[in-house]
User: Fold this.
Amino acid sequence: MNDTALPPEIRDDPGSSPGQALHRGLATLGLDADALAQPLLAYLALLARWNRTYNLTAIREPKQMVPLHLLDSLAMHAHVATLARTGAALADLGTGPGLPGIPLAIANPALRVTLVESNGKKARFLREAVRQLGLGNARVAESRAEALDEPGAYDALTARALATLPDIIEVGGHLLKPGGELLAMKGAVPHEEIAALPAGWRLKTVHVLSVPGLDAERHLVVVERG
Assistant:
């Protein structure tokens, strides 16, 4: 693959393999590359293989998947690690092929992750990924978020590419316990969405995220349920 095939926000090293790029990126994020690279690459290989048949993600090349999927998901790791140390439960709404939920579950074995996905083929992939990767701390809920009957069961929700903040709260807010947090991964700071937060929800903080290998704006918007 030549450089022109890469999205413009990717900083490409022509001599770098996906494994090398992942090792470097994990180290930059302060994560244990030696411990995490193998299971993350196993997930990547499984995703690439299934993607050829089931079109789970528009990103086709493993070299692109490393920054755009794996490292982008793990850029929020520092803000999830505290939850993980308490054995908290996190629901990843509209997870698709498991992003960011599976990378976060791999990096945080004490974090209890529910992968919420209504699409049948994606849910089948998720179940196979959880099985093959031996992720005892992850489960798949094949359901729309609004139909998941687990009110107040989660310490945190996350959503990587699912609608606006008010829409996320509308479909999944019932899953979050009082005092719990929505960890919404965004590009630019969504000022209009923040201004439209419903009653009982407040902006707690906004973190600037840096994704190794990407020249793109990323923010983690933390919204607290009252």
Observations:
- The longest strand covers residues 176-186.
- The beta strands are 89-93, 112-116, 138-141, 154-159, 176-186, 201-209, 218-225.
- Residues 106 and 135 are 7 Å apart (CA to CA).
